[in-house]
Design a protein that fits this description.
The chain is α/β, with parallel strands linked by helices. Helix content is 31%, strand content 25%.
């Protein structure tokens, strides 16, 4: 027994060994050879100066190194580096390799500078995990070892150190662009218009009610809108503004409350901040900063146009709303449109740029050059004003200002591309090449893309670059005036859909649009529709909802509930209410055709035109005569009589629906219970037969009675003629003879008619 158990154990052990070997042999080769993550640090360049050095000037680079790995680096060191390839065109800048697929230790495009002690900095202590150290590197001009021509170079800072059980490696690097102003002067100035976007996702739910404090927080001096507005104090800029946001800020300044998820409200805290922001905005306009007003609510043009009717009409309504209200919000404003990415395709640009009330040739159509592929991108080194061909739109060409997206690309390392320093260096590099690349005045427009600068710091770096010696700050209007002869280019090509709103969000917008349209058509004067309802609808289409789906759902749900509440004030009066719920209205329909009353009341503050439509829910034989609509003033009622007919008896379930003048349903339908009590064809035959029998019997009886009377009269007359005297000879023909005495015995029954009308048989 013991030997048997021993053999079984040996066999089991052998099986385990074979299984383990099979598992090992069957493992993927890459898993076996997968190296451990290489230790890395994060290098950050915080300052670089001067922005564009001249030959002979030294450059000072300051920054930080943070150990993001789990190991300690011995003998840590920061070194300046340079790629000595001179870049002389904007296309060359765009072609700089990011080296993302090359291990950090193998990246050698930026050669380390180690000949001068100022160009590298050893750290006194090993760099432990999560530890941060600062560095300052001063690079004398000769250490760059480059020529004196104008151009752009990729420079940076590398980190070297020795991780455990390894030799020294480069574990981190940060690069930037260094424009160099050669000994020969630049050949032309660059008119530069900086577009500063002032927009925020909607937060106003209606009146004094706001969803949150995010707008007020952004308006503070340290908020993104506060920082962006402050740029207009020292620089000439063009503000790109959503007028719906201006409306919201004006309400904040008047006072507001924040509505919580439970419906409770708290007093808003941003009243003074909003007041100060508006004051600064007005002062900036006075200083000459151009104001370009976006379509009201900053709508997602691509989503709305792709959705077709009825949502595509909201684009024109948003533009008309801006055109009509802009003068009050910002006198001297420019009606504008801003598109980027796939939303700048010809079918969007053509449809959104024209076809609305108030459209003029002076309207600004602003498009980012990033909408085109690099191979088809228009040349922007001379003029950004183009006639963009849009054969699929109402017009064959649209006058467009193309913003140079290269000016805001940053880089060259993607992970730090949006930092203020990188944005400043890219802007300086591109404009310096434009200034050195031709004769005559060049013009460029800089427009930060949507979502690019969350805190406003990068845009502030762009504004600071307007003081560079070859830059001449202007506004977009100045750029357009300086380029009266637009160039021509084709519209960018885009995919099938290019919007940012989800299908769920679009469905909610459709419901809100339907309720708003129904309300407007209900009013006798459609222009009397409360402006807040139109504003709410346009705000629901905002591109600012991108990334805030839950806030968008909450906003649209509240606005839809508010619109339905107004529609619900025009309804059928129903006296039958059970536990707060309206019960069905019961009516009787006697005969094949009859009428019954229904009453509509108008609980709104406006005159409305209403009608009623009654339809059967369970039978097809109910016929309702159409009614004309009626006008009801505020608080008035209308009680028309509904003419109905049914071919059969029984209970008919029907719905009574209040409608507007166009026949659109207003509110929810009211259930009716119609009791039809009438005779069918067989019933009418029976009734006719019964009537014939009744009248026929009566006729026969009357005929018999008349004949009997005639016979009795003839007999009585014969008797009287034969003997008119009594035994004494008295004359018995006196009419008063044989009359009954007063209170005497009545005449015998035979003296009266036994049959006739009014008898129990008659």
């Amino acid at each position: 027994m013991f030997r048997r158990r021993l053999r079984l154990s040996a066999v089991a052990g052998a099986c385990l060994v074979v299984a383990a070997s099979a598992a090992t042999l069957g493992a993927p080769a890459e898993a076996e050879a997968a190296p451990a993550d290489e230790p890395a640090v994060q290098v950050t360049i915080d300052s670089f100066g001067p922005t564009a050095p001249k030959p002979g000037q030294q450059v000072v680079i300051k920054g930080r190194v943070t150990n993001t790995s789990s190991v300690t680096f011995e003998e840590p060191q920061a070194l300046a580096c340079i790629d000595r390839t001179r870049l002389a065109s904007t296309a060359a800048l765009d072609a700089i390799s990011t080296e993302q697929n090359i291990p950090m230790s193998d990246r050698d495009s930026c050669r380390n500078l180690a000949n001068d002690e100022q160009t590298f900095q050893p750290f006194e202590q090993p760099l432990a995990p999560k530890e941060t150290v600062e560095f300052t590197l001063t690079v004398p001009w000769k250490e760059w070892r480059i020529n004196d021509q104008t151009g752009v170079y990729v420079v940076g800072v590398a980190f070297r150190g020795q991780p455990p059980n390894s030799s020294r490696i480069m574990a981190g690097r940060a690069r930037t662009l260094m424009p160099v102003l050669g000994k020969e002067p630049l050949t032309r100035p660059v008119n530069t218009a900086l577009v500063v976007p002032l927009r925020h996702r909607p937060t106003q739910l209606g009146g004094k009610n706001f969803a949150n404090e995010s707008l007020a927080t952004s308006l503070a001096p340290t908020g993104s809108l506060g920082r962006l507005l402050a740029l207009g104090r020292q620089h000439l800029v063009t503000w790109l503004v959503d007028p719906a946001m201006l409306d919201e800020i004006r309400q904040l300044a008047k006072g507001y409350v924040v509505v919580g998820e439970n419906g409770q409200t708290t007093t808003g805290t941003g009243q003074s901040v909003a007041t100060n922001w508006l004051r600064e905005f007005d002062a900036g306009r006075t200083r000459g900063n151009q104001v370009v007003l976006l379509p009201y609510g900053d709508p997602d043009v691509a989503s709305l146009l792709d959705s077709g009717d009825p949502l595509k009409k909201l684009v024109g309504r948003a533009r008309t709303k801006t055109e009509r209200s802009g003068g009050e919000l910002a006198p001297g404003f420019t009606n504008g449109l801003s598109l980027e990415g796939g939303a700048a395709a010809g079918r969007y640009l053509g449809a959104a740029s024209v076809g609305f009330a108030g459209a003029t040739p002076d309207d600004l159509n602003l498009v980012s050059s990033s909408s085109w592929s690099p191979a088809t991108r228009p040349v922007l080194t001379t003029s950004p004003v183009y006639d963009v061909l849009t054969p699929e739109g109402p017009d064959q060409a649209v006058r467009t200002v193309i913003a140079n997206s290269s000016l805001t690309t940053g880089g060259p390392d993607p992970e730090t591309a949006e930092s203020p320093l990188q944005v400043r260096q890219r802007f300086a590099a591109v404009t310096a090449l434009i200034a050195a690349g031709g004769k005559g005045t060049a013009s460029v427009v800089v427009a930060p893309p949507r979502g690019w600068d969350s805190d406003g710091r990068a845009t502030a770096a762009l504004a600071g670059s307007l003081s560079l010696p070859w830059i001449k700050a202007t506004d977009v209007a100045g750029v357009v005036a300086a380029n009266p002869r637009p160039l021509t280019t084709r519209a960018p090509v885009a995919g099938k859909t290019n919007g940012v709103l989800t299908e769920t969000q679009l469905d909610s917008i459709r419901q809100l649009d339907d309720a708003t349209t129904t309300m407007q058509d209900l009013l006798v004067d459609g222009n009397a529709l409360p402006e807040v309802m139109t504003q709410a609808l346009l705000r629901s289409t905002s591109s600012g909802w991108n990334g805030y789906a839950e806030e968008a759902r909450h906003f649209t749900a509240i606005e839809l509930g508010s619109a339905n509440q107004q529609l619900g004030k025009v309804h059928l009066v129903n006296a039958s209410v059970d536990r707060g719920l309206r019960k069905e209205i019961k009516v009787n329909l006697a005969g094949s055709k009859g009428t019954f009353p229904l009453t509509i009341t108008n609980g709104t503050d406006w005159s409305v035109r209403v009608g009623i439509v009654v339809s059967s829910a369970n039978r097809s034989d109910l016929k309702i005569k159409p009614l004309q609509t009626a006008v009801l003033g505020p608080g008035q009622k209308w009680t028309p009589r509904i003419t109905a007919s049914a071919e059969q008896n029984g209970l008919i379930r029907a719905n009574a629906q209040v409608t507007n003048a166009d026949g659109r349903p207003v509110g929810k339908p009211q259930e009716l219970l119609i009791q039809a009590s009438q005779y069918g064809s067989v019933g009418w035959i029976l009734v006719g037969a019964a009537c014939a029998l009744l009248f026929g019997t009566s006729f026969v009886r009357i005929y018999r009675r008349v004949r009997t009377e005639r016979r009795n009269t003839a007999a009585a007359t014969t008797g009287a003629t034969a003997d008119t005297t009594d035994a004494d000879g008295a004359d018995t023909s006196d009419p008063a003879h044989d009359r009954p005495e007063a209170n005497g015995v009545p005449e015998a029954p035979d003296a009266s008619l036994k049959e006739g009308v009014g008898s129990k048989d008659g």
